[in-house]
Input
Amino acid sequence: MPTRRAIRLHPLRGQPTGWSALEVVPWHDAGRFTGDGDDPGDRLDYHTGLVYPQDAASQVPVLLLAPRPGEVVIDTCAAPGSKTSQIGIALGDAGVVVACDADPRRRAVLGEVLARQGVTAAVVTPMPVAVLAERRPGCADGVLVDAPCSGHLPSPTERQCERLAVKQGRILADAARLVRPGGRLVYSTCTDRRIENEDVVRAFLDANPGWRPDPATLPGCDADLDGLGGLRLGAERQGTEPFFAIRLVRDQDGPVDTLAGDAPEPLPLPWPVPGTVMRLGGHAVAVTAAAAACALPAEVRGLRLGRIHERGCEWQPWGAQGLARRGAPATVVAHGDAAALWAGATMALPDAPFAVTDRGAPLGVLAGPPDARRLDLPSRMRRAGLR
Ligand SMILES: C[S@@+](CC[C@H](N)C(=O)[O-])C[C@H]1O[C@@H](n2cnc3c(N)ncnc32)[C@H](O)[C@@H]1O
Output
């Protein structure tokens, strides 16, 4: 049975425009099923970070984790970042989401996904989960283990699934050590195989008496196969990819630690920007206080705004989009004009540094004289034919 295409809407990036069908996902008010002919890549909505293509079932784990502003959250298997960005948006301008992933190339994509959605709370670290757990046990309010699973293999053998189950159990055990007393962990996979889902969780609970399931329900989702309090979704009943997710809570015993290090020197900008703007290498980044001070090696920290020169800052497109929605002066242009600007047109526009559409989506930074202003986009971004 085919699955339904779905997207997730960014709550700070305006209203979607011109889709053939948008149906609210029953378990997530920011989720939408789209029409089969709707390709997000053709849409300005995607390029302005309003829309992120994400299977509707894959939106469930972060709903169970329910991150709150100010919290420390660790996403242990984070790339390419669908769920890290969902967590970062939920944290807003307070807290930190630390993203780990064993694959450096996938971590590079993760950095882009976070930037596109303007996430300031993120720290992407190359530190392996086991090392982090060894050094900072009990540092997180919430941890997500969206485990590598057989759902990504074309026709997995029993042996492959057994090996994956061992790996999943190991990552889950390491990840659990990161959770503070009373904190929570969500374990999820995109396979319907019991051996990688209920069996992994049951083995973990048997070996860790300080943990218990925290049963959850969501509209339209099914219960897990063992009555553990987890959720299952799939093509036949929900129109999604196969999915399993369960929330576990730690009891009140155990170590407590923090990721807090020294606060960096703030870098002033001409406009108020939520959180801190700091210098990182030759760049200015907008970052939550907790992500700025997070004492971990980082490949990405906050949202890269632009390169700093003696004369000011050369804005990066996704940084500029983030600023345009966060209090920096922006010119409002109609959606049609926005598509033309995106395609390379010039037009007379008021002298504000940034542009947003009349539906609230941030376009980016404007350049050129007042009577022929253009949108400053790097050449590798797709320009033509966007609606
Ligand atoms: C299912 S994918 C994660 C998808 C991601 N959570 C998202 O929503 O975009 C599993 C990820 O686990 C990573 N991985 C595999 N083994 C790992 C390990 N031992 N520690 C951390 N990450 C690992 C893989 O590189 C892969 O990116």
User: Anything to note?
Assistant: The first strand starts at residue 6 and ends at 9. The mean pLDDT is 94. Residues 158-177 form the longest helix (20 residues).
